[in-house]
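User: Can you predict the 3D structure for this chain?
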Amino acid sequence: MTHLCRRAACILSKYNGSSGMDAMLVRHKNSGEHPTAGIIVVGDEIVKAQVKDTNSSYACSLLYKYGVKVQKISVIRDDIENIAKEIKDFSQKFNYVFTTGGIGPTHDDVTYEAAALAFHDTLHYHPTLMDIVKNRFGCKNFPSPSYKMAYVPTKSVLKFGINERTGQAFPYPCIVMENVFIFPGSPRFFESNFQALCKEFFAGYRGFTTTEVYVNASEESFANILTAVVRECPNVSFGSYPEQSRYYKARVTIESENEKDVEIAKKMFCERVPSDVLVNYDRAPHTDCLAKYEKLLQRPQTRAIYKSSFEKFVNYYQNPDEVWIYLDGSDESIIMVHLARVAYNKLKQGSKSKLHAIYFKSDHFEPVMNEFFRDISYRYDVELCSLRCDEIDVRRLTASRSELKTLLLGKRSNGNENEIYENLTRVSNDAPVQINCPLIDWTDDDVASFVAFLSLPYYATGETQLAR
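Assistant: Here is the predicted structure, written as structure tokens:
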């Protein structure tokens, strides 16, 4: 670990805003090959469920990728003494501690004060942070509440992450004390800065090898098999998770530091489970979607309508900015988004551009539906435009989006009619936009087979989680 400690000290010294402050050495406990980490999420709004915490999930996912073992996550309210106690405890137990939240101009933003208390330090206005608050955040008058973001522990070090796209430092750093990295709670800031930090600190570690097996049967049906395999593979970690999905009923994870051990364990488990309950599920159908779609077309039993429909999308996306998809959460709308991305990738080999979609929401719009749309937007790189259900007027949309020429609906001729489809078609008669229904001739079997083969994400009312 010594080389990493030296690298950490070098990095911290490089980005230390105060020339008179000695660089700090990140402490490493003896934990074998993989360092350990603890995450502290600060905020009354998290504890009261007024804001959903996504930072800890993002951090865990990224740290796992880099081979860092997260041992504990703590969610704590805005209380200086409790935060300080948690920071001190985590700092003594884990190689790295990451806090998120409690940084800002208001009275309940107390993480800096808590960190100072944990390490018996005082607070001061850091000159570099003072300059950032004044010139980057536009707060000219001192004192003012905004300058609380410059009031940090005296012994702390500033760690500016580097934006990989621009090569420039991010506008606000995380604050480092001992082995504790203190981040604001904004997910937009946290994710970009945390990712930059992981690349700098953990690139040299060996990550974990992991795979998943999807089983279309209850856990009880294969529990004895899994228990036996666990005993026979002591160097492998297993997990079993019942999940609500149209594709499978349970997900089994297999993990080890050794790729060969994972392969052996997976083969052992799959050979003992009945083959008819194993599911060939793709968690990321949007990745390499063109190659996967071409593989679908090569199957002897593939329906001819898939190819003819795809040719329509290739024609639509000659001018991608002119084409918008009506996204309503139906399988048909997801199929259109998927085909649009495949067609665009085929036409623009290597280049990237956003797809465009609209959706209508009402006062009863489900939060989980909104989350699903955000997931689709992220996966397929879709620009979403929302309108209220009482504003179904294509003319209003085209007034603000003059480039819109074609709107694609998931309407089919056998059974998925709905009022919005009819309203969109009706109001478009007087608007400079063409309504097309590329799946009009698809049957229920066509839809089901397409979705199943490609493992497309879906939304289903009443399910506790989205298909991901």
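The mean pLDDT is 83. The first strand starts at residue 36 and ends at 42.
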